[in-house]
Specification:
About 45% of the residues lie in helices and about 15% in strands. By secondary structure, the chain is an alpha+beta fold. Strand 3 and strand 4 form a beta hairpin. It is elongated, with a radius of gyration of 28 Å.
Length: about 350
């Protein structure tokens, strides 16, 4: 469970005599305290007061804690709307909830609040000390010929950064990944088997996600087994099923097991039809075996996949997609922030 701290709202005005224009301490009371009605979960009325600088003549307004300039809603109520949206409600659903509780808030206002908080969270995240990242993978962005790369820290179980990429430009993607890895001090690049990630780093520093690799190879073996059986090639079909069983049992070995090596030699001279496809599959398994991640902490990039799902994909499935890059990139940081640190999330830092 995550304990969330919301901004507090005070009914008193704290005198701050520093001039916002010249910075001098010369503020003089320029008006009496005036009351204003606000929308909040607890407070209905707060006070404000005008001050005037004795040096430059600038006047400004002091507000009660938890109330922003020109706002009819408190920071606490804004935080409620942001949290409800990030928990899965749509902007319109948040608006209906606020209206049902007799609080103010429109769907466009909630959208602006979420965007503002997301930008603050993104800036706050980038100001934090760089983490050592050991994982990276991507997600497509709906409606755009581009995607986003998610970098995560396996040991800390945290999101490191999110960067935009244009997937059709392989060279640009590789350069972008190299730059981000250098920026965060990456120790290892772990991805799926897409060719776009080849040659980004040295071969020994690039590991293939075990989950992606094992799933794709077992799926191809199962498909070939069905095709062989459909053509009456029972022996070859059983061989593919044996390959699937060996992959599940022997994946943890650092070297290709002898049983799979025998299967490779069995099909090595096949050049036609389904036999050629089986030959290609077995050779690819043999070539890529040493590149598969067998990290005892986490041999897969499932942490990154989970973060993409929680921070990005779940929301894009419930809407037509983000309308701008700024909102798309800020949303994962805000979602990550709301998961808190050590069971605590302080919304006062981003509202």
């Amino acid at each position: 469970m995550i304990a969330t701290i919301f901004p507090s709202v005070s009914t008193e005005v704290k005198l701050e005599r520093h001039c916002p224009h010249c910075g001098r301490v010369g503020g003089q009371i320029h008006s009496q305290l005036s009351a204003r009605t606000i929308s909040d979960t607890k407070v209905e009325q707060v006070f404000q007061q005008r001050l005037r600088c004795a040096f430059c003549g600038t006047t400004w307004t002091l507000y009660s804690q938890g109330i922003g300039p020109g706002r009819q809603r408190s920071d606490r109520l804004i935080g409620v709307g942001v949290l409800l949206y990030m928990l899965g409600l749509s902007y319109r659903a948040v608006e209906r909830f606020l209206y049902a509780m007799q609080w103010k808030g429109s769907k466009s206002g909630v959208e602006r609040d979420v965007d503002r908080s997301g930008q603050k969270t993104r800036a706050l995240h980038k100001q934090a000390p760089a983490m050592r990242v050991r994982n990276g993978t991507g997600a497509k962005m709906a409606g755009k010929n581009a995607g986003m790369l998610f970098f995560t820290d396996i040991e800390g179980q945290r999101l490191v950064c999110v960067e935009p990429v244009k997937e059709t430009d392989a060279r640009a993607v590789r350069e972008h990944v190299r730059r981000v890895m250098a920026l965060v001090g990456a120790e290892q690049l772990r991805t799926d088997e897409l060719s776009v990630y080849k040659h980004v780093v040295d071969e020994e520093d690039h590991k293939i996600c075990l989950a992606h690799w094992l799933k794709s190879k077992c799926q191809r073996a199962a498909d070939l087994a069905r095709q062989f059986r459909a053509e009456g090639m029972v022996y070859e079909s059983e061989t593919m099923l044996e390959l699937k069983r060996l992959l599940h049992e022997k994946w943890s070995l650092p070297q290709v097991p002898p049983e799979i090596e025998r299967l490779v030699r069995r099909f090595i001279n096949c050049r036609n039809g389904l036999l050629w496809k089986a030959n290609q599959l077995l050779q690819h398994i043999e070539r890529s075996w040493s590149s598969v991640s067998r990290d005892p902490a986490d041999p897969t990039n499932n942490l990154t996949e989970r973060l993409i799902g929680l921070d990005y994909k779940i929301r894009t499935k419930t809407m037509r997609g983000f309308k701008s890059w700024d909102k798309a990139l800020a949303h994962p940081y805000l979602s990550e922030f709301l998961r808190g640190t050590d069971g605590l999330c302080d919304l006062r830092r981003v509202i």
